[in-house]
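Worked example 2:
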Amino acid sequence: MTEQSDYLIIGAGIIGLAIARELRSRYPKAAITIIEKEPDVAYHSSGRNSGVLHAGFYYSADSLKAKFTRDGNFAMKDFCREKGLKLNECQKVVVAKDESELEPLYELDRRGKRNGVDVKIIDEQELKEIDPNAKTFKFALYSPNTATVDPTELNKAVRDELLASGVKMVFGQGYRKKIDGNTIETTAGNTFTAKKLINTAGLYADKIARDFGYSAHYTIIPFKGIYLKYTKKDKPIKTNIYPVPNLKNPFLGVHYTITVDGTIKIGPTSIPAFWRENYKGMDNFKGGELANILGWESKLFFSNAFGFRSLAFDEMKKYNKSYFVDLATSMVHSIDKSGFTEWSKPGIRAQLLNTKTYELVMDFVVEGDNTTVHVLNAVSPAFTCSFPFAKWVVDNYIEKS
């Protein structure tokens, strides 16, 4: 028998969970079902990200990310306090290495202020008061609202809230194919249908969307991110320390993160992956994905779109641990390099590529109609953005239709 719902959500990452939460708050009696191929929530990027709650100063004021990050930072903190979840309000500084990085630093300050974010330019003495070990050239940017959480703990808290509200979750069954209309078949051979189907499948959202006539000019290019933990007992870093990023691409550079339990880690890498769940060795290998992704990465390499060639070379160098550590140690006065010993669980960023323009899409992309919604680019910092983003999706792609 085909199981029927008012809303069927594909994927139990933070975006799918947040949309279900928003729907439940508006429609207490609606039948909401989430299907997920893994045994539980947050098996992929939602549970493998840094756990940083960003403040919202990186993004231009006209972007969806700017508003969602600013509002999501406060919404996530409120949720953690309400549920008694771990929250480390460790703040952030962005430091410059030389004169050439001061103008981009000022641009981050301008963006933050236009976005209504609490940021300010500080001098070296003020930086020393925040974190004596952080090193900058003349000035730095200070973000008091940046914090960290345990992303898996938070996802599971949302899961428990949804289950208690009557949302049905079906684990161990992923999307296999569209049968007809909004009726789909899962990898377990079961069929589900709904008045509204919502695709939040992350790394596979573009492929599912194409079955419904969407994502015509997009494809996912996966990038692997890994952090390196500092395992000595001393705590030489007090706050998150970030470099001035290249504002032309969506990656923030190797930085220091203070986790919710006080652990110091550096990273991440942004290494082009060879298949969508290319976490380790040959795990989850899919030959078709390898061929497709290598094809696109070859085109990007030879065309050098958005500086992909230098990005790829720079990222591959991060496999050299000494080089990787040196990128981070240049931002502090003193730290024991031998203390960086333990690699974190890898994560994969589902980065959308516009196949017409060969550009990495820097903002959220959603496509749909009155029967289906497809979240194609839940780009970083989607974790921070998830609650207000879910409200926007419901406002614009569910209630309006």
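The chain has a mean pLDDT of 95. The CA atoms of residues 148 and 394 lie 27 Å apart.
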